[in-house]
Design brief:
By secondary structure, the chain is α+β, with helices and mostly antiparallel strands. The chain is built from 6 helices and 5 strands; from the N terminus they run αβαβαβαββαα. The chain is elongated, with a radius of gyration of 26 Å.
Protein backbone atom coordinates (compact mmCIF):
# COMPACT_ATOMS: atom_id res chain seq x y z
CA UNK A 1 0.00 0.00 0.00
CA UNK A 2 1.59 3.26 -1.08
CA UNK A 3 1.24 6.63 0.60
CA UNK A 4 -1.66 7.83 -1.57
CA UNK A 5 -3.66 4.68 -0.80
CA UNK A 6 -2.98 5.09 2.92
CA UNK A 7 -4.14 8.72 2.79
CA UNK A 8 -7.33 7.62 1.00
CA UNK A 9 -7.98 4.93 3.65
CA UNK A 10 -7.43 7.45 6.47
CA UNK A 11 -9.86 9.86 4.78
CA UNK A 12 -12.51 7.10 4.35
CA UNK A 13 -12.10 6.04 7.97
CA UNK A 14 -12.40 9.67 9.07
CA UNK A 15 -15.73 9.93 7.22
CA UNK A 16 -16.91 6.73 8.93
CA UNK A 17 -15.93 8.00 12.38
CA UNK A 18 -17.69 11.34 11.83
CA UNK A 19 -20.93 10.13 10.23
CA UNK A 20 -21.69 6.92 12.14
CA UNK A 21 -24.26 6.83 14.90
CA UNK A 22 -22.49 3.90 16.55
CA UNK A 23 -19.15 2.16 16.01
CA UNK A 24 -18.37 -1.26 17.45
CA UNK A 25 -14.80 -2.54 17.67
CA UNK A 26 -14.25 -6.29 17.85
CA UNK A 27 -11.56 -8.94 17.45
CA UNK A 28 -12.15 -11.35 14.62
CA UNK A 29 -9.13 -13.65 14.86
CA UNK A 30 -10.04 -17.19 13.84
CA UNK A 31 -13.13 -16.32 11.79
CA UNK A 32 -13.36 -18.05 8.44
CA UNK A 33 -14.01 -16.14 5.24
CA UNK A 34 -17.56 -17.55 5.17
CA UNK A 35 -18.18 -16.31 8.72
CA UNK A 36 -16.90 -12.82 7.84
CA UNK A 37 -19.12 -12.81 4.75
CA UNK A 38 -22.05 -13.79 6.98
CA UNK A 39 -21.26 -10.87 9.31
CA UNK A 40 -21.02 -8.47 6.37
CA UNK A 41 -24.31 -9.76 4.93
CA UNK A 42 -26.13 -9.43 8.26
CA UNK A 43 -24.78 -5.91 8.73
CA UNK A 44 -25.62 -4.86 5.15
CA UNK A 45 -29.15 -6.27 5.50
CA UNK A 46 -29.69 -4.26 8.70
CA UNK A 47 -28.31 -1.04 7.19
CA UNK A 48 -24.80 -1.06 8.62
CA UNK A 49 -21.31 -1.87 7.36
CA UNK A 50 -18.18 -3.72 8.40
CA UNK A 51 -14.66 -2.49 7.79
CA UNK A 52 -11.29 -4.09 8.46
CA UNK A 53 -8.47 -1.56 8.53
CA UNK A 54 -4.95 -1.31 9.83
CA UNK A 55 -5.04 -0.13 13.44
CA UNK A 56 -2.34 2.46 12.83
CA UNK A 57 -4.34 4.07 10.01
CA UNK A 58 -7.56 3.95 12.06
CA UNK A 59 -5.80 5.69 14.96
CA UNK A 60 -4.60 8.43 12.62
CA UNK A 61 -8.15 8.83 11.28
CA UNK A 62 -9.51 9.06 14.85
CA UNK A 63 -7.41 12.12 15.74
CA UNK A 64 -9.72 15.05 16.44
CA UNK A 65 -12.91 13.01 15.98
CA UNK A 66 -15.64 12.83 18.66
CA UNK A 67 -15.09 9.08 19.12
CA UNK A 68 -11.30 9.30 19.51
CA UNK A 69 -11.54 7.35 22.78
CA UNK A 70 -11.95 4.05 20.94
CA UNK A 71 -8.30 4.19 19.86
CA UNK A 72 -7.45 2.13 22.97
CA UNK A 73 -9.49 -0.79 21.57
CA UNK A 74 -7.47 -0.88 18.32
CA UNK A 75 -5.00 -3.64 19.10
CA UNK A 76 -4.65 -6.99 17.37
CA UNK A 77 -6.92 -8.11 14.56
CA UNK A 78 -9.81 -5.65 14.83
CA UNK A 79 -12.89 -5.07 12.74
CA UNK A 80 -15.12 -1.99 12.81
CA UNK A 81 -18.89 -2.40 12.60
CA UNK A 82 -20.76 0.85 12.10
CA UNK A 83 -24.13 2.29 11.12
CA UNK A 84 -25.87 5.64 10.90
CA UNK A 85 -28.67 4.31 13.10
CA UNK A 86 -27.37 4.47 16.67
CA UNK A 87 -28.49 0.91 17.41
CA UNK A 88 -28.13 -1.24 14.27
CA UNK A 89 -24.41 -2.02 14.32
CA UNK A 90 -24.49 -2.86 18.03
CA UNK A 91 -27.50 -5.18 17.59
CA UNK A 92 -25.98 -7.07 14.66
CA UNK A 93 -22.51 -7.30 16.25
CA UNK A 94 -23.97 -8.51 19.55
CA UNK A 95 -26.13 -11.09 17.76
CA UNK A 96 -23.17 -12.30 15.72
CA UNK A 97 -21.00 -12.54 18.84
CA UNK A 98 -23.65 -14.75 20.48
CA UNK A 99 -23.55 -17.10 17.48
CA UNK A 100 -19.76 -17.08 17.09
CA UNK A 101 -17.26 -17.39 19.95
CA UNK A 102 -14.34 -16.18 17.81
CA UNK A 103 -15.96 -12.75 17.37
CA UNK A 104 -15.16 -10.80 20.56
CA UNK A 105 -16.60 -7.33 21.07
CA UNK A 106 -14.05 -5.00 22.68
CA UNK A 107 -16.13 -1.83 22.93
CA UNK A 108 -17.30 1.02 20.78
CA UNK A 109 -18.52 4.57 20.60
CA UNK A 110 -21.82 6.36 20.28
CA UNK A 111 -21.07 9.96 19.41
CA UNK A 112 -18.55 11.18 21.98
CA UNK A 113 -19.44 8.43 24.45
CA UNK A 114 -16.98 5.53 24.58
CA UNK A 115 -18.73 2.23 25.31
CA UNK A 116 -17.27 -0.82 26.99
CA UNK A 117 -18.58 -4.34 26.24
CA UNK A 118 -21.53 -3.88 28.60
CA UNK A 119 -22.30 -0.51 27.02
CA UNK A 120 -22.45 -2.12 23.57
CA UNK A 121 -24.79 -4.80 24.97
CA UNK A 122 -27.00 -2.09 26.48
CA UNK A 123 -27.17 -0.24 23.15
CA UNK A 124 -27.97 -3.52 21.39
CA UNK A 125 -30.92 -4.02 23.75
CA UNK A 126 -32.43 -0.66 22.79
CA UNK A 127 -35.15 -0.54 20.12
CA UNK A 128 -34.07 0.60 16.66
CA UNK A 129 -35.24 3.84 15.07
CA UNK A 130 -37.95 2.00 13.08
CA UNK A 131 -39.20 0.20 16.20
CA UNK A 132 -39.37 3.50 18.10
CA UNK A 133 -41.28 5.17 15.27
CA UNK A 134 -43.75 2.25 15.21
CA UNK A 135 -44.24 2.52 18.98
CA UNK A 136 -44.82 6.27 18.78
CA UNK A 137 -47.29 5.92 15.91
CA UNK A 138 -49.15 3.20 17.82
CA UNK A 139 -49.25 5.41 20.93
CA UNK A 140 -50.58 8.34 18.94
CA UNK A 141 -53.11 6.22 17.02
CA UNK A 142 -54.44 4.24 19.99
CA UNK A 143 -56.47 7.06 21.61
CA UNK A 144 -58.01 8.00 18.27
CA UNK A 145 -59.10 4.43 17.58
CA UNK A 146 -60.46 4.14 21.13
CA UNK A 147 -62.46 7.34 20.66
CA UNK A 148 -63.79 6.12 17.31
CA UNK A 149 -64.78 2.82 18.93
CA UNK A 150 -66.49 4.59 21.83
CA UNK A 151 -68.41 6.89 19.49
CA UNK A 152 -69.46 4.02 17.23
CA UNK A 153 -70.35 1.61 20.05
CA UNK A 154 -73.68 3.23 21.10
CA UNK A 155 -74.83 3.40 17.50
CA UNK A 156 -74.06 -0.27 16.92
CA UNK A 157 -75.76 -1.14 20.24
CA UNK A 158 -78.90 0.76 19.19
CA UNK A 159 -78.82 -0.93 15.80
CA UNK A 160 -78.54 -4.32 17.51
CA UNK A 161 -81.46 -3.57 19.81
CA UNK A 162 -83.61 -2.35 16.90
CA UNK A 163 -82.89 -5.47 14.86
CA UNK A 164 -83.76 -7.65 17.87
CA UNK A 165 -87.07 -5.76 18.30
CA UNK A 166 -87.84 -6.16 14.58
CA UNK A 167 -87.17 -9.88 14.81
CA UNK A 168 -89.52 -10.19 17.82
CA UNK A 169 -92.30 -8.28 16.03
CA UNK A 170 -91.85 -10.39 12.91
CA UNK A 171 -92.09 -13.59 14.97
Amino acid sequence: MDRAQKERVVEELGQIFESSGVIVVAHYAGLTVAEMQDLRARMREAGGSVRVAKNRLAKIALEGKPCAGIADFLTGMTVLAYSEDPVTAAKVAHGFAKDNDKFEILGGAMGETVLDVEGVKAVAAMPSREELIAQIVASIGAPASNIAGAIGAPASNIAGILSTLEEREAA
